[in-house]
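Appendix B, record 7
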Amino acid sequence: MKMIMIQIQKYTRENKPKQEEFSRNRYSVIYTLKGQYQHVGCSSQEEAQQVLGSLMTDGNRIPVGIYDSGTDSFEWEIIGQYFHSQDPISNQQERLQEIVTIAQVLRRRDASWQPGYLQKPSFFA
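Structure tokens (predicted):
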């Protein structure tokens, strides 16, 4: 029932239904592994927070934050947020734009593997 209400709200707000891709994987948890940016697609903010929390205890992966494709915004993980806030405003904006671009590229790359569905990669791949 909740899913039906969400689809109705999206339809009335924009006068057309959203693609399922956005509801299933609206959020991307960004992290680094061996110096390379990676991401995990999540369907809700809560799920993204849980994935981000699990990355905090992973010795190999370094959590960066959560990208929201619905609002095109990024939320730094807590330690990163502290260091990010210490930088001058111009550096903050530049770094934020850089990480948003990285998130968008990762999402496009993975969406191209299976059009219409952004898969959740395995943590142990």
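Remarks on this record: The first strand starts at residue 27 and ends at 33. The first helix runs from residue 2 to 14.
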